[in-house]
């Protein structure tokens, strides 16, 4: 709670209030189990939780769009968004629904429920940790030296992903997308920059997830993995089974099968899931477009069928997946729809932009090693190397090598952080 209050001295009371409401809601659901009263309590609790999220995150967006389609001109409120509200709201929703469905036991200790929601390793930017995952460990944790060792390794690797890779990739993105003249950027320069941005987001968010998982492990909590090398995927469905897994599974388990449109109208449910996936990321139209964009490709893949998708040559499948994903990251980046249109035109030279340009080629040359290393580490290179060494019973070499790598990455990250003034994680804003 001190950790959260350090950044949010006022909104910490909102967090406590949200936990208290849901704590009481869980007790009432258990008391009125299998009755209409339990359903009513669940509905009221969900309205409260979702209402808080909508108020703080989407009020300004909704008012702006209402003004755009109506003759009235309401003042647009600028409401400060509490840190981590998207993540802790989804966690508390998963707790309430799992209580209602009888998947977990109701937590009768307010303090322990508060600990679950305010757990600092993953509070401010995820991943979304379901109550069921750590239900037993809340009361029965066993911290081993192996857990501490693995936790330290994950923290070091996560820090390296963020500071060494993501931060340096961000300078490429800022040079061409943020401060540069987008309309005059060449086709090659546009593809180069958006690929750098895709890897920046991956290393930034998977790095944060590694740190969160590592910290949790040190304290005896075993969080689920949130990333499994998504860029090795052969289709968009597989990509979303490997990327931000905690968010994808949340929507799958709590929204996809809710019979809002009836059991036979699965495509509308799919539309709802991907609309919500996009809208969850931010109160801007580009996020909604981004969500529906991926939803469209998943719909196409479902229509084609898994068997037919597997017949596609692996090289072609990887190229298809990479192009769709990278373009998606461009949609994610540009909150200004005008610039988004320019970006999409740039990709295929529709804006009269050249195929290549001198500045982009110079930047590519200067950052060649960063780019090569980043691409390589998007693949499971290190796990494959460890597995090969262990298969030859070289456990000591594996252990020593991992220790040396941890120290080197931590030292280099610390040196790079000395002169850095601000290192926010990308998903902090969501």
Overview of the structural elements:
The protein has 430 residues and is mainly α. The chain has 19 helices and no strands. It has helices spanning 2-7, 12-31, 36-69, 85-101, 110-117, 131-139, 145-178, 187-218, 236-242, 245-256, 266-281, 285-304, 306-310, 314-333, 337-347, 358-366, 368-377, 381-391, 395-418. α2 (12-31) packs antiparallel against α3 (36-69). The model has no long low-confidence stretch (mean pLDDT 87).
The shape, in one word, is globular
Helix and strand content put the structural class at mainly alpha
Low-confidence stretches: none
Largest sheet: none
Distance between the termini: 20 Å
Number of extended strands: 0
| Helix and strand run | HHHHHHHHHHHHHHHHHHH
Which percent band covers the strand fraction? Answer: under 5%
Count of helix runs: 19
Helix content: over 70%
What is the residue-averaged pLDDT? Answer: 87
Overall radius of gyration: 23 Å
Sum up the structure in keywords:
430 residues; mainly alpha; globular
Kindly summarize this structure in a few lines:
The chain is an all-alpha fold and 430 residues long. The chain has 19 helices and no strands.
Strand-helix topology:
Blueprint lengths: L1 H6 L4 H20 L4 H34 L15 H17 L8 H8 L13 H9 L5 H34 L8 H32 L17 H7 L2 H12 L9 H16 L3 H20 L1 H5 L3 H20 L3 H11 L10 H9 L1 H10 L3 H11 L3 H24 L12
Helix pairs in contact: 2-3, 2-4, 2-5, 3-4, 7-8, 7-19, 8-14, 10-11, 11-12, 12-14
